[in-house]
């Protein structure tokens, strides 16, 4: 087979097989990386969801502080909601229904602002408002919230006045004009020692690693398959150029008699 690689045509085929294998291996590595990310997300959820709440200032010593491994960490905070600054986070789905999350700034006893997602309310039929107005408590209250990262701006999505398309902490802090945590916001777990009645608080998400491992193996199999296909094509080429073997014809009785007469 190696003698075929002296021909430019087969060298070109080999180059195509190599490029195909490189692309497949890159896609396989990408799928493997996605699997590792999924496993890390599951590990963070398992490690942090049921942890004992810590003080907000301990978890986030700076307003812009936040580490990815802190996701879902419960923090205990005391202060009061700025009810008049409440916003509706649109386009949030729960159990197949579309609704809003109620997002409210919470002024801590230290004077800093933590934005809190209190929970979900179903959207009214054919309306841009929830089926019921949230009843955010006024006055001093103690809450427990789980840390969530800044969502940033979602390109191409807007919202009417009083609503937002994402929890973009930078924009929210600029609009409020007070010292605000911009690294993370809080997902409400408890309010005044229990769950609020006016909204549905977030439940523990169900995470799995997905099909990334099988996709990884498939891409590596495809990479090897390119060389297998090349080898098969070369073998077929060699079979086509091999000289044909002479076909041996069965001798008849007449042929034998002629041979005897020739000898005589």
Automatic annotation (TrEMBL):
It comes from Agrococcus terreus. Keywords: Cell membrane, Membrane, Transmembrane, Transmembrane helix. It is found in: Cell membrane; Membrane. Residues 242-264 are annotated as: Disordered. It holds the Pfam family SURF1. This is SURF1-like protein. It comes from the Bacteria. InterPro entries: Surf1/Shy1, Surf1/Surf4.
């Amino acid at each position: 087979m190696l003698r075929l690689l002296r021909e430019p045509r087969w060298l070109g085929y080999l180059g195509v097989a190599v490029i195909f294998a490189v692309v497949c291996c890159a896609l396989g590595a990408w799928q493997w990386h996605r699997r590792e990310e999924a496993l890390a997300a599951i590990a963070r959820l398992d490690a942090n969801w049921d942890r004992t709440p810590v003080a907000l200032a301990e978890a986030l010593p700076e307003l812009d502080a936040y580490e990815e491994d802190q996701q879902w960490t419960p923090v205990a905070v005391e202060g009061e909601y700025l009810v008049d600054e409440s916003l509706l986070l649109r386009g949030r789905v729960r159990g197949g229904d579309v609704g809003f999350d109620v997002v409210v700034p919470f002024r801590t006893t230290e004077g800093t602002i933590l934005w809190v997602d209190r929970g979900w309310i179903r959207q009214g039929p054919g309306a841009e408002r929830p089926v019921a107005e949230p009843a955010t408590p006024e006055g001093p209250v103690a809450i427990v919230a789980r840390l969530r990262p800044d969502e940033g701006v979602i390109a191409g999505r807007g919202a009417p006045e009083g609503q937002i398309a994402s929890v973009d902490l930078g924009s929210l802090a600029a609009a409020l004009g007070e010292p605000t945590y911009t690294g993370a916001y809080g997902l409400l777990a408890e309010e005044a020692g229990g769950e609020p009645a006016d909204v549905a608080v977030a439940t523990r998400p169900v995470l799995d690693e997905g099909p990334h491992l099988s996709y990884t193996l498939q891409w590596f199999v495809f990479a090897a398959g390119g060389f297998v296909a090349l080898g098969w094509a070369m073998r077929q080429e060699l079979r086509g150029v091999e000289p044909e073997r002479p076909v041996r014809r069965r001798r008849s009785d007449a042929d034998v008699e002629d041979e005897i007469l020739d000898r005589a």
